[in-house]
From TrEMBL:
It is found in: Cell membrane. This is Sec-independent protein translocase protein TatA. Belongs to the TatA/E family. It is a single-pass membrane protein. Residues 77-86 have a biased composition (Basic and acidic residues).
């Protein structure tokens, strides 16, 4: 809402007529104090909203950083290469025959 100079002058004259010139400074001080309090309250609300809005975002960012750090050290090929390069452990048991070579192997039983 924009006020022209004429409208502001009319409001000023109405205030002087209603309250008198001696109360005008006190009214201006009270009005300024009220505006300052309102601005402070609005700033407090903005700060509180930003805190609440920032917490989940920063928490998500921390989780993303943890995943990134874990992904840096992860190398699935390392485990495969290790398995290929290392020889199988020698055991005292004889190797089990494959089902094709085993005459006693009956295969899956259907009922």
């Amino acid at each position: 809402m924009e006020l022209s100079i004429g409208e502001m002058a009319l409001i000023a004259v109405a205030i002087v007529v209603l309250f008198g010139p001696d109360k005008l400074p006190q009214i201006a001080r009270d009005l300024g104090s009220g505006v300052r309090k309102m601005r402070g309250a609005v700033e407090d609300i903005k700060t509180e909203i930003m805190k609440e809005a920032d917490n989940p975002v920063s928490e998500i960012k921390r989780e993303i950083e943890k995943v990134k750090d874990a992904a840096k050290d992860f190398n699935p090929m390392k485990d495969i290469e290790k398995d290929i390069l290392t020889e199988p452990k020698a055991s005292n048991e004889p190797p089990k025959p494959k089902p094709v070579d085993d005459d006693t192997y009956e295969g899956p039983v259907s009922r």
